[in-house]
Design brief:
The complex is a heterodimer of chains A (about 210) and B (about 220). By secondary structure, chain A is of the alpha/beta class. In chain A, about 30% of the residues lie in helices and about 10% in strands. Chain A has helices at about 5-10, 20-30, 40-50, 85-95, 105-110, 140-155, and strands at about 70-75, 100-105, 130-135, 180, 185. In chain A, the strands form two sheets. In chain A, strands 1-2-3 form a three-stranded parallel beta sheet. A two-stranded antiparallel sheet of chain A has the order 4-5. The radius of gyration of chain A is 20 Å and the shape is globular. Chain B is built from five helices and nine strands. In chain B, the strands form three sheets. A five-stranded mixed beta sheet of chain B has the order 1-2-7-6-3, with helices on one face. In chain B, strands 4-5 form a two-stranded antiparallel ribbon. A two-stranded parallel sheet of chain B has the order 8-9. In chain B, strand 6 (about 100-110) and strand 7 form a beta hairpin. Chain B starts with a helix and ends with a helix. Classes of the chains: A alpha/beta (about 210), B alpha/beta (about 220). At the A-B interface, loops of A face helix 4 and helix 5 of B. Bound molecules: iron/sulfur cluster (SF4). Iron/sulfur cluster binds near residues 40, 78, 104, 106 and 136 of chain A.
Chain lengths: ~210, ~220
């Protein structure tokens, strides 16, 4: 139905909608995040939920303490290699549809600790991430922005057709390999099905001033 | 609080112990006391119970890795060369290091004094890395000694629960040692420079394929 007609009808007190709109509206308006934080970014996440920034305005009033009741995983903070298997396991335990926000430089890439001996170089090596928030730490406004971005993403999802989201495609996985802590590192060091090495042209790096080609 | 005084107190009360004052050349001049490991536990109990002031609080335990280091110094000596006395420069090589060190910072809450810096050294960095645990004397050393074990590999004899603290149990390395090599996961370094750039180049060289091919899939 075209937008204009819909608006006209709404003015007359008739609400016309589609199942897809209703379904997406329902999902996007009650995204409950999983209640866990990993490092300093978690403090900003906590601030976002409190009265001043009030994430509850957007439908995330409760942070669920159980992955079974949560829709959104906010990976807020440094993921150590010791913690990574637990994070992936928690993600696997969440019910579909589920989303991930990777909050802060650490969760994106390891951040200031990228070359550390015990820090995972980005949670997206093991689980699919929907929204990345750069920053160290990102301000609460940035988390709100990411949250709204996720809501827009959910709103645009098609319930039918080849582009329908993962949870409506039975053959796509909803659980991902949990890495194991081995003698020197995690094994495997990444899940190739969801993370490929981005294009790097290392042969030119360091040759000119900017380090780029 | 005078370190000399404490040293002579200990020497008078713990027979047979060998102590050494390690000077600190920085402006803070926080000299430390090196204790031999055979008497460390007795010295520690004396410091807690008998010394004046009594060091009733251990605030910090940490480790230092001293790898083997060769120092060559030049020295001028007179020598007889073909019957004629000449000035000859000789290079003298000495080695230092090759041990792990554990450092304790002690305070006296009673007398508001401190810190007293106590050090112990292992015999080498590979096999003989045993030191007595001071946790029986100061309970606050418990987790910190576990951390020193975890990151440096010092084995504390007499520790009630010597397990890894920060790293996982199946981990085999000691990451704070100077010769620790971290895993080769340098496949993606968007702003590589210096050491990281070298590691990244080594990573791709070892793979035998140019990085463009890697990224172009
Ligand atoms: S990105 Fe910065 S603020 Fe966030 S967890 Fe890492 S170090 Fe802390």
């Amino acid at each position: 139905m075209d937008e204009q007609l819909k608006n006209e009808l709404r003015r007359q007190g008739v609400v016309a909608t589609t199942l897809q709109e209703l379904y997406n509206w329902g999902r996007k308006s009650s995204i409950w995040p999983l209640n866990f934080g990993l490092a300093c970014c978690a403090i900003e996440m906590i601030a976002t939920t409190m009265a001043r920034y009030d994430l509850a305005r957007f439908g995330a009033e409760v942070f669920r303490p159980s992955p079974r009741q949560a829709d959104l995983m906010i990976v807020a903070g440094t993921v150590t290699k010791k913690m990574a298997p637990q994070v992936v396991r928690l993600y696997n335990q969440m019910a579909e549809p589920k989303y991930v926000i990777s909050m802060g430089a650490c969760a994106i890439s390891g951040g200031p600790f990228k070359q550390g001996y015990n820090v995972l170089k980005g949670i997206d090596r093991y689980i699919p991430v929907d929204v990345y928030i750069p920053g160290c730490p990102p301000r609460p406004e940035a988390l709100l922005d990411a949250f709204l971005m996720l809501q827009r993403k959910i709103d645009e999802q098609q319930l039918t057709g080849p582009d329908r989201p993962r949870h409506l495609q039975a053959e796509l996985p909803s659980e991902f390999t949990v890495p194991e802590c081995s003698e020197h590192d995690l094994t495997p060091t990444r899940n190739d099905a969801i993370w490929q090495v981005p294009l790097v042209n290392i042969s030119n790096a360091g040759k000119n001033e900017s380090g780029r080609d | 609080m005078n370190l000399e005084e404490i040293k002579s107190q200990i020497e008078a009360n713990v027979p047979g112990c060998s102590l050494e004052i390690l000077p600190n050349g920085s402006p803070s001049g926080q000299h430390s006391l090196l204790v031999d490991k055979e008497h460390a536990l007795t010295v520690a109990s004396f410091l807690r119970d008998g010394a004046s002031p009594r060091f009733d609080y251990c605030s910090n335990v940490t480790g230092v890795d001293w790898p083997l280091k060769e120092i060559s110094t030049k020295q001028k000596t007179k020598k007889l060369v073909d019957g004629v006395e000449k000035d000859v420069e000789e290079v003298i090589k000495t080695t230092t290091g090759n041990y792990l060190e554990v450092v304790y910072h002690l305070f006296s809450l009673e007398d508001r004094q401190g810190p007293l810096v106590l050090r112990m050294r292992t015999e080498d960095r590979a096999e003989r890395v045993h030191l007595p645990s001071l946790t029986p004397v100061w309970r606050s050393a418990d987790f910190q000694e576990r951390e020193v074990y975890d990151l440096f590999g010092v084995l504390f004899d007499g520790h009630p629960d010597l397990r890894r603290l920060l790293m996982w149990d199946s981990f085999t390395d000691f990451p704070m040692r100077k010769d620790y090599v971290d895993p080769d996961d340098y496949e993606y370094e968007p702003t590589a420079h210096d050491e990281v750039l070298k590691r990244t180049q080594a990573h791709y060289a070892a793979q035998g394929e140019p990085s463009e091919a890697e990224g172009a899939r």
